[in-house]
TrEMBL record:
GO terms for molecular function: DNA-binding transcription factor activity; transcription cis-regulatory region binding. This is Transcriptional regulator, LysR family. Coiled coil: none annotated. Signal peptide: none annotated. It holds the Pfam family HTH_1. Keywords: DNA-binding, Transcription, Transcription regulation. Belongs to the LysR transcriptional regulatory family. Residues 1-58 form the HTH lysR-type domain. The lineage of its organism: Bacteria, Bacillati, Bacillota, Negativicutes, Selenomonadales. CDD domains: PBP2_CysL_like.
């Protein structure tokens, strides 16, 4: 197998000796020589300078050594993942998610996880960011996925993605006709907001404060769907995640506003206790979450 030959080659380079490589790999020195000779014949080039004292790579050998190290590393990673698939993963996984993540990111991820690991029991709690943080803090959940800032200082917080926030209005709203809106255009508007404790609400409040906006009136809804339907009905303006309005924008049920020289992003974060419990199910979920958002 080529992996075995590369392992012999790398060991010879690092030990600078055929005999020491043979001792480490528990094979004979003639076997080491055969591996190297076969490799040189396959590549059609000399890979090693041999002397009575030590072995040094040629220029070709040095190139192969660098790539061989990467190949062996990738091979070991592949073996670990294959071994993981062969072993049954069981146990429970208690996940908490804020509304945007729980409704628009988590379902597809869990569907894939359930197919690969059917014996893992998954329990999902969807609530606003502050409530999820409280449940993580009290160890009622294994993992929390939230948007916005978390006030608890004794939690581990890790960003796993960025989320663009967009201002939306109904198609009949006066601002819908403007190609770009300014701070002045946003003064004295009616706002549709999420409830206190929501990451989206916190981000909206921060934008209103940063831009120094006067709010004519506000309506508060406890769900993303409520906010969307209120905007579609023409009740006011809202700042929402791009994740929740893709279908409405494609169907031209809403109009997105471009703020002059400004794009808005927030972090989506994983929160866990400072001293989290761990299990194979938790490790697998974390790996899937982080790889899916790269």
């Amino acid at each position: 197998m080529i992996v075995d030959t590369l392992k012999v080659f790398v060991t010879v380079i690092e030990q600078k000796s055929f005999s020491r490589a043979a001792d480490i790999l528990y094979i004979s020195q003639p076997s080491v020589s055969l591996h190297i000779r076969n490799l040189e014949n396959e590549l059609g080039t000399k890979l090693l300078h041999r002397s009575s004292k030590h072995v040094e790579p040629t220029q070709s050998g040095d190139i192969l050594y660098q790539h061989a190290k990467n190949i062996l590393l990738l091979y070991e990673e592949a073996k670990q993942k294959i071994n993981l698939l062969k072993n049954e993963v069981t146990g429970s996984l208690k996940i908490g998610a804020s509304f945007t993540i729980g409704e628009y990111i988590l379902p597809a991820l869990l569907a894939e996880l359930a197919v690969q690991y059917p014996k893992v029991d998954i329990e999902v709690t969807i609530d606003n960011t502050e409530e999820i943080a409280q449940k993580i803090h009290s160890n009622h959940l294994d993992i929390g996925l939230v948007e916005g800032n978390v006030s608890h200082v004794d939690l581990n917080i890790q960003t796993f993605a960025k989320d663009e926030m967009i201002l939306v209005v109904s198609n009949n709203h006066p601002l819908a006709r403007l190609p770009v809106v300014t701070t002045e255009d946003l003064q004295d508007q009616v706002w549709i907001l999420r409830e206190s404790g929501s990451g989206t609400r916190a981000f909206s409040d921060l934008l209103i404060e940063d831009l120094g906006l006067r709010v004519k009136r506000s309506f508060v809804f406890g769900s993303n769907e409520g906010v969307k339907q209120a905007v579609i009905a023409g009740l006011g303006i809202a700042l929402v995640s791009c994740l929740i309005i893709r279908k409405e924008l494609d169907a031209e049920e809403l109009t997105a506003l471009r703020i002059k020289e400004k794009r808005l992003f927030r972090s989506l974060s994983i929160i866990r206790p400072k001293e989290p419990t761990t299990s194979k199910a938790i490790e697998i979920f974390m790996e899937k979450l982080l790889s899916s958002e790269k």
